[in-house]
Design a protein that fits this description.
CATH architecture of the largest domain: 3-Layer(aba) Sandwich
Number of domains: 2
Bound molecules: zinc ion
Distance between the termini: 54 Å
Largest sheet: 8 strands, mixed
Helix content: 25-40%
CATH superfamily of the largest domain: Zn peptidases
Number of strands: 19
Shape: elongated
Strand order of the largest sheet: 4-3-11-6-7-8-10-5
CATH topology of the largest domain: Aminopeptidase
Radius of gyration: 27 Å
Oligomer: single chain
Number of helices: 15
């Protein structure tokens, strides 16, 4: 049995011990103090007000406004002591070769005695100009099994969009490259795909696609590309007759698509880690800095889509991380990235993922930021929170600032696969998106989402200050943790991850 005096001694010891332990229990995580000194309310507000200002005209890809934003970010990187990435162009920039493709001036398909025209029943998606009279062959979905044994030489191949599994327009698009390649390898002259999807009805599709499209310039200059055309699948009697094998010839005439280069740049910088071994591993902190520019809006007095929430907030978070970690490097190296052309289809991040300046298998995690806005200033919404083993770091960092990290409240929206993080996730890099707090897509979100009202005025700067600090603390925890974060077992990108890192 313990003596009285022993018992008192032990109590005193425990009390002393608890005094020593207490700060950690209360969340005095290393780095927090420095983070709080580094990231201030006034500086955050200044950066948000500058990046989302009317003068930057909505930071549209290809505009002068976005160039000012790019210069601002690059010079901040310089100020914070970041080094350019190896192989970057002109310091902190990575040129992203984009081009705008205009619909062909002329495009028509004559089937039987009916004429289908570009911008009406016809949409030329890809391909060089062509004029021919030839046989037409119908081959189900135009996949390998469908084409087996067919003679397609110099003929027009007609197929259904998608496949038995690929049933929505996004998936239709995903199969175009494969089908185009297959048809080309068999000598076909053109592919006409019958489009029919209730998800995006034909008139809406026309509205969206029969105008200049921005894409990556894949350097396919001078090469003849097989024309790939969508035709509205309808009850048109000539089309029906064709499907019943009563028509076997058609003529097709399209002019070349007109292509114009568009200047665009990612802004990138890095700091080297302090640990001899871990510095060869890179944490990628990123956000897109472009927005949608100037255009018609519901407000006759405003035409500037300032993009304060989408995504000046993300850009300022990355700048805050660059400032803090630039002055206090963690064990791992860190890449800071501001992507261009996210709003045009994730083009900047996708370009980097295809042309990385640091090998992707050394890039161990991507903490990306994008956001439509927020409707709850007590939370941080992390799209993919529960999908990587960094969940605990993210939650703890938020707690340190009195916030709760919550997972995607609207998984049916497919947000995980709709922002720059997916450019890396599909390569295998664990990559959630760290958004400001939202609990549903309600009116409060839609009031600002891609609207001219998405202005810096009215932002909750105090909430954002905590949000920025929590982001940087999360990054610091991940960059200092000896254990590398990875996908949770069974995640749809886990296999890609194992392949990338050779696990
Ligand atoms: Zn965005």
């Amino acid at each position: 049995m313990m003596t009285q005096i022993n018992c008192i001694m032990k109590t005193i010891k425990l009390m002393l011990l608890s005094l020593l332990v207490l700060p950690a229990v209360n969340g005095q995580v290393p780095g927090k103090k420095r983070i709080d000194q580094s990231i201030t309310l006034s500086e955050s507000e200044f950066q948000l007000r500058f990046l989302a200002s009317d003068e930057l005209k909505g930071r549209d890809t290809g505009s002068s406004g976005i160039d000012v934003a790019a210069r601002y970010i690059a010079e901040k990187f310089r100020l914070y002591g970041l080094t350019p990435l190896p192989g970057a162009d002109d310091g902190y920039f990575q040129t992203v070769k984009l081009q705008e493709t205009y619909p062909p001036e002329k495009g028509q398909l004559v089937l039987g005695n009916d004429r289908f025209e570009q911008g009406k029943e016809l949409l030329v998606l890809r391909g060089s100009g062509i004029k021919l009279d030839t046989e037409v062959v119908f081959a189900n979905y135009g996949l390998e099994a469908d084409l087996e044994g067919l003679d397609l030489k110099d003929k027009i191949l007609v197929v259904k969009a998608g496949s038995t599994e690929a049933t929505n327009p996004r998936q239709f698009f995903g199969l175009i490259g494969t089908k185009q390649q297959l048809a080309k390898s068999m000598g076909a002259a053109a592919v006409v795909e019958l489009y029919n999807s209730p998800a995006i009805p034909w008139p809406m599709l026309l509205n969206y696609l029969n105008q200049p499209q921005l894409g990556v310039d894949k350097d396919e200059k001078e090469q003849k590309e097989l024309p790939y055309i969508w035709l509205q699948d309808s009850q048109n009697d000539q089309l029906v007759a064709f499907k019943e094998n009563k028509i076997s010839k058609a003529s097709l005439e399209i002019s070349d698509l007109v292509k114009k280069p568009i200047p665009a740049r990612n802004v990138l910088g890095m700091i080297e880690g302090t640990d001899e071994k871990l510095k060869n591993e890179f944490l990628l902190l990123s956000a897109h800095y472009d927005h949608v520019g100037v255009g018609q809006s519901s407000d006759p007095n405003d035409s500037i889509f300032n993009g304060a929430r989408d995504n000046a907030i993300g850009t300022v978070a990355v700048l805050s991380a660059a400032k803090t970690l630039g002055a206090n490097p963690p064990k791992r190296s860190v890449i800071f990235a501001a992507w261009t052309a996210e709003e045009k289809g994730l083009l900047g991040s996708d370009y980097y993922a295809e042309n990385p300046l640091v090998p992707l298998d050394q890039t161990i995690y991507n903490l990306n930021i994008d956001g439509a806005g927020y409707n709850d200033t007590t939370v941080i919404t992390v799209i993919g929170l529960e999908r990587t083993s960094a969940e605990q770091h993210i939650k703890e960092a938020a707690q340190n600032y009195g916030l709760t990290a919550i997972a995607d409240p609207a998984p049916e929206q497919g947000l995980f696969d709709r922002s720059d993080n997916v450019s890396f996730a599909k390569k295998g890099i664990p990559a959630p998106t760290y958004s400001t707090g939202f609990t549903s897509f309600d009116e409060e979100i839609m009031k600002y989402y891609h609207q001219v009202t998405d202005e810096p005025d009215g932002l909750h700067f105090n909430y954002l200050l905590s949000y920025f600090r929590a982001y940087v603390l999360t990054a610091s925890k991940i960059a200092n943790d000896k254990k590398r974060p990875f996908w949770i077992e069974g995640d749809k990108y886990e296999v890609a991850g194992k392949e990338l890192y050779g696990k």
